[in-house]
Amino acid sequence: MSFRISFAPPADDTLAKMRNGDSFRREMARTLGLDPYGYASTAVKRERDRREATVAGAIVLYYVSGTVLTVTVVRLVPLP
């Protein structure tokens, strides 16, 4: 089962400025798109569906919706 990856406007703006945006999207699909609760992600403030992970050199804050199989990235912070 795979999850659709969507980006909220602030995260999408950051993604547009990233040099490796296409490879980042592929890595998101390969990791969190297949297992949003895995890949060394952690729950934020004890909320199971509010998560944080580092993917391809960027910190990703996201929400998981199991009912519609969607991972929504709300904040994206590329590491320097």
Question: What does this protein structure show overall?
Answer:
The chain has 80 residues and is α+β, with helices and mostly antiparallel strands. It has a single domain, classed as RelE-like (YaeB-like fold). It contains two helices and five strands, in the order E-H-H-E-E-E-E. The chain has helices at 9-17, 21-30; strands at 4-7, 42-44, 47-55, 58-65, 70-78. A five-stranded mixed sheet has the order 1-5-4-3-2. The longest helix is centred in the N-terminal third of the chain and has 10 residues, at 21-30. The N and C termini lie far apart (33 Å). 18% of the residues are buried. Keywords: Membrane, Transmembrane, Transmembrane helix.
Number of domains: 1
Strand content: 35-45%
CATH class: Alpha Beta
For the biggest β-sheet, the strand order reads 1-5-4-3-2
Low-confidence blocks of residues:
none
Write the element-wise H/E pattern from the N-terminal end onward. EHHEEEE
> Architecture in CATH?
2-Layer Sandwich
Structure classification: alpha+beta
Shape: globular
Question: Largest sheet, described in full?
Answer: 5 strands, mixed
CATH topology: YaeB-like fold
At the fourth CATH level, what is the homologous superfamily?
Answer: RelE-like
Beta strands, count? 5
Terminal residue distance: 33 Å
The share of residues in helices is 10-25%
List the total number of helices: 2
Mean pLDDT: 95
What would you report as the Rg, rounded to the nearest angstrom?
A: 11 Å
